[in-house]
Amino acid sequence: MGMPAPALLASLLFVQPVTAGFSEDPAQASIWLQQACRIQQVGYSGGVPVDHTEFCTCFDRNLREASTDDVYRVFALGSQGAVREQGLIEDWESARDTAAAEAGAMAPEVQASFTTILQSSLMACMNFSFQGE
User: What crossing angle do the helices spanning 5-13 and 26-45 adopt, rounded to 10°?
Assistant: First the structure.
């Protein structure tokens, strides 16, 4: 179960560049990422958002440890863009576009690491994924 990596990657990467003034605080990024993760996991695995807290806390922690601050911010903003109106950021389109612009400005080798970081973080947390009622 869990968040399919291709869907997550698409949500993070298929976007148009723009800039906006979002918080650069990793603690805020963590709130955004975990909330979006819970929403996405309900879509993939059912249940309600709180059912996915353990998985999303684990996923967030692993992403944070595997990423630079800039990469982590891109993941967090991209996740808010992916959940659209259900996210914490009202202007989700701006969050999505900011993530794309910031990711696009990163070195190619950093961009190439996104998939590995996401997949390893997902795999590290699979034992916490919600299996339904």
Answer: 130
